[in-house]
């Protein structure tokens, strides 16, 4: 799965099954859900090109830890398109050389 879910007010309108049963199984509080991102961005132990996420069951909960990079994240065509769309939407362009 490779993402973290936090129970927020968004789940209030998702119905009983999602709000009361599914969300508690696959979520953790926002402060804990943010930890993998914060660690990846700030901890000197993190190496360039590594991927971090929750280390618990199915990688949706738990302490931050190294994770496998999902196949979709390695798709160069999609990555290039995402970069192009980001530049178009922000109006910011970078002259990056491979």
- Give the CA-CA distance, first to last residue: 30 Å
Broad shape:
globular
Beta strand count: 2
Low-confidence runs: none
User: Biggest β-sheet: count, sense, barrel?
Assistant: 2 strands, antiparallel
Strand percentage lies at 5-15%
Strand line-up across the major sheet: 1-2
Give the topology string: H per helix, E per strand: HHHEEH
Structural class: mainly alpha
Task: Give the mean pLDDT.
Answer: 83
**SS summary, helix count:** 4
What share of the residues lie within helices? 25-40%
Radius of gyration: 17 Å
Give the assembly state of these chains. single chain
Task: Give keywords.
mainly alpha, two-stranded antiparallel sheet, 6% strand, 98 residues
Describe the structure in your own words.
The structure is a single chain. Helices cover about 40% and strands about 5% of the residues. It is mainly alpha-helical and about 100 residues long. The chain has a two-stranded antiparallel ribbon with strand order 1-2. The radius of gyration is 17 Å and the shape is globular. The two termini are about 30 Å apart. The relative contact order is 0.14. The model has no long low-confidence stretch (mean pLDDT about 85).
């Amino acid at each position: 799965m490779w993402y973290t879910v936090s129970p927020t007010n968004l789940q209030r309108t998702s119905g009983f099954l999602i709000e009361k049963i599914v969300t508690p199984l696959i979520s953790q509080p926002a402060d804990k859900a943010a930890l993998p991102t914060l660690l990846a961005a700030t901890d000197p132990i993190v190496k360039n090109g590594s991927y971090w996420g929750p280390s618990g069951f199915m990688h949706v909960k738990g302490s931050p830890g190294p994770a496998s990079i999902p196949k979709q994240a390695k798709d160069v065509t999609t990555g290039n398109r995402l970069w192009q769309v980001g530049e178009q939407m922000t109006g910011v362009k970078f002259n990056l050389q491979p």
